[in-house]
Write a structure and sequence with these properties.
Blueprint: E1 2-4, H1 12-15, H2 19-27, E2 32-36, E3 39-44, E4 52-60, E5 68-75, H3 83-87, H4 89-104, H5 108-122
Antiparallel strand pairs: 1-5, 2-3, 3-4, 4-5
Length: about 130
Amino acid sequence: MKEYKMRRGETLEERVPDMESYVEETFGPITETMDYKGSDLYVVGEPANPVFERVVAGAVKYSGKKDKLAVEFKERDPTELSPDELEAAGEAVDAKNTFLLEATGRDAKSRRESLKRQVEDDAPDY
C-alpha cells in the first residue's frame, strides 16, 4: 500500500469530497471495504479496466496530521492478457495517473520526488 500526501495547503477532503463515488467513477463498482490503519478503504474487486486485478483506495486519517491517500493497484500478469486487454494498458496508466493527480494535486514527477525524499529521510544514519 502506498500513501500519498496532498499538495501544500490542501486537504484530501477538499480535493475529493466523495471518495467512494470518485473510486467507483474511475475504476468500477466497489465490492467491499477493508481496514487499513484504522480507516476504511474501498476495494474494487473487479475493475472496469482488465489490466487491473484489484484496486484499493481511500483516505487514511491521522490524528493531528492531514489525511493521506492510500492506494494499492494490483495488476494482472501481462502474459495472461489477451491482445485486446493489452490495448487497455495505456488506459490503465492514464486512469492511475489521473486518479492520483486529481486526488493529490501532484503530478507523477512531484509524487516521485516526494517519495524519494521520504526514502532518504527514513534511511538510517550510520
